[in-house]
Structures are given as structure tokens and as C-alpha cells.
Amino acid sequence: MYLTVPDKYRQATDEELRQIVLDAKKRYGRRMTILVHHYQRLEIALLGDFTGDSYELSKIASERRDSEFIVFCGVHFMAESAEILSADHQKVYMPNPLAGCPMADMADIGDVLEAWEYLKEVGIAEKTLPLAYMNSDAKLKAFCGREGGLICTSSSAKAAYEYVYNRAEKLFFFPDRNLGYNTGRRMGIPDDKIVVWDFRLDGGGIDPDRLRGAKLILWKGHCHVHTNFKPFHVDDVRRQYPNVKVVVHPECVWEVVDKADAVGSTKFIVNYIAEQPPGSVIAVGTEINLINRMAYTYPDKKIFELSGPICPVCPNMYRTTLADLANVVENLDVFDRIVVDEDIKADSRLALGRMLEVH
């Protein structure tokens, strides 16, 4: 069990830690792959074999069949997804297994099952398909698989909505209400056909007749990072920089998304910044480590966080340190790996497989 990093790594210099990782990469070759999410610290990203979003990295892991050891620098649901998609001979590790995701935790499977039973009581479960964001627990992914639903990423949410509405009258989206709402607006779903299920209230806090009339049911979850961004932040940067480009993640609230020049996934944001000409001024509405890495990568552009002094940092992504990474790659034989129960894995693969159909 992961308790603390041994003194050997905690007391080492950054250069010593980097060398431990580089030595391990040389020793294992293609037998070990280090995957790094866009929101990781710069020093971690520089040591990764691949950098990307959660879906992209999980797909890479599933395709590298000659890689026995998958080291996922991210948060727990990401490593779970890599484990679900991995082959039997592959082992998945997290350098810091304590790195979770508060938004994923907001959709507890017990609460979800209770909500689904209520939909049965009011007579609409059979008309509804569940759709879970990639940023969710394996048990929620498995539930979607069992009930005929699927998984989506922020970039494939619209296509996933189309998949659902070609097969059902109603869609139940978990766990991020903002991505769900923004996608619904993009699909032309009116507000009077959208309801938000509050898992803390009986019946989701929704009148049964309104629930029956809804086309889109949103779980009341959110990302702590992206809800930091407010409409006035966009107004302020436009006043300060008249030629600024504002690009934000779709986990932001609608009022921010509506004011932005561009909206998309972490991969979209990376590509958007890369495509802007030298001298561009770009305000970014997402996690600070991605913003800092983009500023480091493109010194010929002014790239900064949209919210100014309100630093949009994900503390769970920030948990993974060089000491954590050095510890795991030097101790793969004894380090606890990420394991998903076979029944959950099988149902999750159904949902992820449907995602691949539409991605």
C-alpha cells in the first residue's frame, strides 16, 4: 500500500530524480511506457513518453501491447481506464495513487443506482440511456455499459448525444452538469427540456412531471478548476488586450463558454494555441499546468490564465512529483498496481467500445 515516498527519493535533488527516471526508461525500453496528462507539472511532462488527455492516453496504452508496464501520471479514473483497456499481460501503475478527482467522486455509484430506480418508478427508465463522461469511476462506466449507454470525452460529447438520441427519448448525463449543459445547448435542446438531478435531494429535487417532460437529465457535478472562470474574467481580458483570443474548456459554465472565441478539450486547446501566429495574446480557461507548459513551449506568444490571480490549479493533478515518479519506475516489482474487478472491467469495456464507435 502507498503510504509515503521513501527518504531516498524525498531527499534527492531534482536532477538525481530525473536521472533515476531516465535510467529506468533506458533499462526497460518499450517494456515501460510513461503516460502524462496535460495537467501534470512541467517536470513530469518532460519525462513522459506520451502527453495527452485521458482518452488519448488510455488508447495509447491499449495499443502498446509490447509495453508490460504502464505508468500513468494523472488521476485515479484515468489509470482505471487504462487498466480496463489494457491486455492481461500489462500492469498499470500510478506514481501517486492518492490523486483522485472530486468531480468523478460526485457521481457515487450508490447514488446513481438510486436515481435509476427512481426513473423506473416514474416510468421513464426504459426511454432513457445513460452517458458518462470519461472523468468518472469504473463502476459508473460499468453501469452505463450494462444499461446500453456509453462513455464520452469532451471532444466526442456531441457525437455521443447523437448516438443516444438515435436510440432513446431521454439522456441521463454524468457527472459534469456544465459539459452536459453546454453540449445540450449546442444540440439545440431548450432549457425547458433540461433538468438537473441533485443527488442530495429525494427524487433529485425535480418534480416528477417535469422529469417526464425532460429530454436531458444532468447530474449535479462540476469541476472545481473550471468553475473558477467567470464571465467577468472574459470581459476583463478583452478590455486589457483588445486583440486577445480566449479559449476555454467545455467544463466551464455556459456564460463563459458563450463569450469565448473557441471551446474544446485539452487536446483542442493545445492545438488551438499551436496554430495561433507568433505575437498572439491568448487567455486560456483551463488548468494552470497546461497553461504554463504552453507558455514554456511557445515563448513567442503571450499565453496566460483567463482568471488572472485566481490560480486554476488542480491539487490532485499537482500531487504527482518527481519523487513519486522515480519511486514507481525503480520499484515496479513491489509497487501496488491499479486493478479493476473483472466484472466491472467487462461492463466498462462495453461502454468504452460504444464510445470508440462514435469518437
Average pLDDT rating: 95
Indicate the radius of gyration in whole angstroms.
21 Å
Q: Helix content range of the residues, please?
A: 40-55%
Write down the CATH class of the largest domain: Alpha Beta
- CATH superfamily label of the largest domain: NadA-like
What is the overall shape?
Answer: globular
Q: How many DSSP H or I helices?
A: 18
CATH fold name of the largest domain, please?
Rossmann fold
The CATH architecture assignment of the largest domain turns out to be 3-Layer(aba) Sandwich
| Computed structural class | alpha/beta
Largest sheet strand order = 6-5-7-9-8
Contiguous uncertain segments of 5+ residues: none
- Please indicate the count of domains: 3
**Could you tell me the number of beta strands?**
13
Largest sheet: 5 strands, parallel
Distance between the termini: 36 Å
- Beta-strand residue fraction: 15-25%
Q: What distinguishing features does this structure have?
A:
359 residues, alpha/beta, Rossmann fold, 3 domains, five-stranded parallel sheet, four-stranded parallel sheet, 18 helices, 44% helix
What does this structure look like?
This protein is of the alpha/beta class and 359 residues long. It has 3 domains: 7-100 and 317-340, NadA-like (Rossmann fold, 3-Layer(aba) Sandwich); 107-221, 3-Layer(aba) Sandwich (Rossmann fold); 226-313, Rossmann fold, CATH 3.40.50. 44% of the residues lie in helices and 15% in strands. The strands form 3 sheets. A 5-stranded parallel β-sheet has the order 6-5-7-9-8, with helices on both faces. A 4-stranded parallel β-sheet has the order 2-1-3-4, sandwiched between helices. A 4-stranded parallel β-sheet has the order 11-10-12-13, with helices on one face. Helix 4 packs parallel to helix 5 (76-85) and helix 8 packs across helix 18 (342-358). It starts with 6 loop residues before the first helix and ends with a helix.
